Automatic annotation (TrEMBL), chain A:
<keyword id="KW-1133">Transmembrane helix</keyword>
<feature type="transmembrane region" description="Helical">
    <location>
        <begin position="95"/>
        <end position="116"/>
    </location>
</feature>
<keyword id="KW-0472">Membrane</keyword>
<feature type="transmembrane region" description="Helical">
    <location>
        <begin position="6"/>
        <end position="25"/>
    </location>
</feature>
<protein>
    <submittedName>
        <fullName>Uncharacterized protein</fullName>
    </submittedName>
</protein>
<feature type="transmembrane region" description="Helical">
    <location>
        <begin position="32"/>
        <end position="56"/>
    </location>
</feature>
<feature type="transmembrane region" description="Helical">
    <location>
        <begin position="68"/>
        <end position="88"/>
    </location>
</feature>
<keyword id="KW-0812">Transmembrane</keyword>
Automatic annotation (TrEMBL), chain B:
<feature type="transmembrane region" description="Helical">
    <location>
        <begin position="12"/>
        <end position="31"/>
    </location>
</feature>
<keyword id="KW-0472">Membrane</keyword>
<feature type="transmembrane region" description="Helical">
    <location>
        <begin position="107"/>
        <end position="125"/>
    </location>
</feature>
<feature type="transmembrane region" description="Helical">
    <location>
        <begin position="71"/>
        <end position="92"/>
    </location>
</feature>
<feature type="transmembrane region" description="Helical">
    <location>
        <begin position="43"/>
        <end position="62"/>
    </location>
</feature>
<keyword id="KW-0812">Transmembrane</keyword>
<keyword id="KW-1133">Transmembrane helix</keyword>
<protein>
    <recommendedName>
        <fullName>Integral membrane protein</fullName>
    </recommendedName>
</protein>
Length: 121, 137
């Protein structure tokens, strides 16, 4: 776990959450730029998982190691599932599915950060 | 409203939130069962049950048709009963639940979403119910 990386994940996640609410308010659908940002966020999550595995393998153990790793892995599913589920429906509200996915990424990353703070404690 | 509108529009959002909870409840339960099943088997099996019910509810809410509608009704009701029962139990006696489930303390650890979600689910099913059902019930 790297605090700079998780900070970036939380920041991009929050910006994308707000962005999707704005799109909903203006009755727009997700733009290509947004999809690229989400792809970038997914890459950050992948790096986060790799760093987590490497540091746990290196002997750093938070209190809830299994929960920590399952969060890191589950996080990768959220954005692809959200984008797919959002794109498959033409209604105005479907862009808010991206909001739910991004917000869940923020909450789960914050929780991972909390769990990681117990390392060595 | 006709039956197809149940799985469209706001129904999509409901499915998305349910999917997140299915993921959260299941992964939590699996971690608990693998790492410390001996500590509190009842609480962890309950955790797994809630996870499985979320998965079925997610599928049922996402699929059109009267059968899936019925399954969604049953699972949402089950969740509401579950979160209320476990909520009361954890309030009365902490001893039986040494570890948290998603339903402990009325879902407090999850911003009370486990308590709100089945209520919204049941409301949505009622709102999108086919007209003939409404006159019958």
């Amino acid at each position: 776990m790297s605090s700079i990386l998780s900070g970036a994940v939380i920041a991009v996640g929050l910006v994308s959450s707000i962005w999707s609410v704005v799109l909903f308010a203006r009755a727009r659908r997700a733009s290509n730029v947004m999809l690229l940002v989400l792809l970038g966020l997914e890459l950050l999550l992948l790096i986060q998982l790799v760093i987590g595995i490497v540091r746990v393998a290196g002997g750093e153990r938070p209190e809830e190691t299994a929960t920590f790793l399952s969060y890191a892995a589950s996080l990768l599913l959220l954005l692809p599932a959200g984008v797919f589920w959002s794109a498959a429906d033409k209604s105005r509200t479907s862009v808010l599915v991206i909001f739910i996915a991004c917000f869940a990424v923020v909450v789960m990353t914050a929780r991972m950060f909390q769990i990681w703070s117990t390392v060595g404690g | 409203m006709d039956e197809t509108s149940r799985t469209s529009g706001p129904g999509r959002l409901l499915v998305a939130v349910y999917a997140v909870f299915a993921l959260a409840a299941c992964s939590r339960a699996i971690v608990q069962l693998i790492t410390r099943f001996d500590e509190a088997p009842v609480a962890y099996l309950l955790s797994l049950l809630s996870g499985v019910v979320y998965v079925i509810a997610t599928l049922a809410l996402a699929r059109p048709g009267p059968l899936w509608r019925r399954v969604a009704l049953i699972t949402c009701t089950f969740e509401l009963v579950g979160v209320l029962a476990i909520g009361v139990l954890t309030l009365i006696d902490d001893g039986d639940f040494p570890d948290e489930t998603v339903w402990s303390n009325f879902g407090q650890g999850y911003l009370f979403i486990p308590l709100i979600l089945p209520v919204i689910g049941l409301y949505w099913l009622r709102r999108t119910a086919p007209a003939d059902r409404l006159t019958q019930g």
